[in-house]
Recover the amino acids of this structure.
């Protein structure tokens, strides 16, 4: 499950909002301009929703990688069910050591997976390695705000919020967009566009059936639900940002 595109902010079609986010990011990054991509890699693909949508949208092939065997298997099942098994495939692989040749893909896509990477600079280098010359790299990621001039770190209160979220979602230490180490990039903060997502998730859980299910699900799930409130707090206070990064690989 990834964030949605909430323009207008009071929209309630949450599934379509998630699809719209993919389309709007692609448009923002300039993918809709010129020749459509032919080969795409989805790094941190989950069960492959983005990959299948992009494959259908552009008529291209898409390969997704994930650390989860369940996600890879489910992604392949869904591709087969949707008649896309010849164009979308999924496998278990490490995003920091991808099993692809250099310069393979003309679109390298990472939607809400970068925050899980323990080494952001190595992650970006690997994305750039598999991108073809002239190919586009897109990273959409949770991050913390940029530090202001003269600041050496976030405030203790901000660090405390992020640490609590890390424990709930098993994330490595947060970083800013700058910390990804990408150069010659276009970047933008879409926090205001996706912030209503967390309100919608929380609201959908405030019914008796959801509360009873949550209480039966165990401590780790309850802790994850609590982290939703922390995420909303982080967005509202400005410490958490929804960062977009894109760049093209230099032509040889």
């Amino acid at each position: 499950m990834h964030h949605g595109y909430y323009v207008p902010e009071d929209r309630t079609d949450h599934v379509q909002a998630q699809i719209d986010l993919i389309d709007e990011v692609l448009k923002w990054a300039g993918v809709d301009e010129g020749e459509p991509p032919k080969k795409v890699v989805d790094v941190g693909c989950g069960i492959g929703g983005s990959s299948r949508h992009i494959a259908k949208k552009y008529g291209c092939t898409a390969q997704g990688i994930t650390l989860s065997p369940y996600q890879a298997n489910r992604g392949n099942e869904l591709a087969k069910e949707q008649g896309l098994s010849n164009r979308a495939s999924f496998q278990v692989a490490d995003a920091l050591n991808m099993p692809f040749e250099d310069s393979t893909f003309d679109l390298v896509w990472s939607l809400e997976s970068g925050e899980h990477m323990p080494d952001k600079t190595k992650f970006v280098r690997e994305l750039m390695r598999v991108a073809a010359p002239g190919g586009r790299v897109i990273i959409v990621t949770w991050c913390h705000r940029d530090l202001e001039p003269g600041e050496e770190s976030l405030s203790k209160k901000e660090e405390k919020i992020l640490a609590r979220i890390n424990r709930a979602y098993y994330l490595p230490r947060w970083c800013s967009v700058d910390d990804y180490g990408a150069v010659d990039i276009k970047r933008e903060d879409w926090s205001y566009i996706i912030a209503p997502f967390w309100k919608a998730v929380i609201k959908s859980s405030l019914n008796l059936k959801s509360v009873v299910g949550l209480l039966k699900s165990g401590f780790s799930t309850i802790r994850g639900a609590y982290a939703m409130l922390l995420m909303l707090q982080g967005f509202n206070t400005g410490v958490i940002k929804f960062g977009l990064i894109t760049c093209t690989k230099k032509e040889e």
Observations:
- The chain has a mean pLDDT of 89.
- The longest helix spans residues 219-237.
